[in-house]
Design goal:
InterPro entries: Homeodomain-like_sf, HTH-type_Tx_Regulator, HTH_TetR
Radius of gyration: 18 Å
Pfam families: TetR_N
Largest sheet: none
Keywords: DNA-binding
Protein name: TetR/AcrR family transcriptional regulator
Strand content: under 5%
Distance between the termini: 38 Å
Helix content: 55-70%
Organism: Gordonibacter faecis
């Protein structure tokens, strides 16, 4: 029953994400209303507010699901390239939504959220998974990496970086400063069950 409820909750949240994505194809993210989202998703306002407090929370939830399986695992179960590849593939379908939402400067909007999330996660991975000290240099490099990743991902969403996914992810890994890269390059519990097509082919 619990799994069924969780699945129903996830499916409802994804309906909301899809509705927001569809609406953002035709209007600015700021102008999309909760009422429009509810009508497009065929849900009540109470259902929306049961899951989310506002439309920024919708994108934060969606991004968190993707990050948890991708970039959050860098240094834990994935290396830099693998983490970026899973995250890039996960956001590709919704790149227009992320691009439009990325222009907002509100505290709860996706761009500041991404930077805060990355900083917190990288610090946690370094200290709690890799058991390494958070030196002033590494702390600086973590903040710089989070800001650079956010900027380059947004350029890809905007269509300014026309690169195959695999190449883009290689470049994303290359912008990480040397000390931080080396500190997290070897996952604590590396995946040994990645599908054979994961690292091959052109994405």
């Amino acid at each position: 029953m619990d799994n069924q409820y969780a699945s129903l909750g996830f499916n409802t949240k994804m309906k909301i994400v899809e509705a927001l994505d569809d609406l953002a194809q035709h209007t600015s993210f700021e102008r999309v209303s909760i009422l429009q989202i509810c009508e497009r998703a065929d849900i009540s306002r109470s259902t929306f507010y049961h899951h989310f407090c506002d439309k920024n929370a919708v994108l934060q939830w969606h991004a968190s699901v993707i990050y948890e399986a991708g970039i959050d695992q860098i240094g834990r179960t994935l290396n830099w390239f693998e983490g970026h590849l899973l995250t890039t593939r996960g956001t590709e379908r919704y790149k227009n939504l992320y691009y439009r939402a990325g222009h907002s400067t509100e505290y709860a909007s996706i761009k500041p959220f991404y930077v805060r999330h990355r900083i917190d996660t990288l610090k946690e991975t370094l200290t709690e998974y890799q058991n390494k000290p958070l030196t002033p240099l590494l702390e600086f490099q973590i903040c710089a990496t989070a800001a650079a990743e956010s900027a380059m991902a947004n350029r890809r969403y905007a269509g300014e970086l026309v690169l195959p996914t695999k190449e883009f992810c290689t470049y994303m890994a290359s912008i990480v400063p040397r000390e931080l890269y080396n500190a997290l390059k070897d996952p604590v519990h590396p995946h040994d069950d990645l599908p054979p097509f994961f690292l091959g082919g052109v994405w």
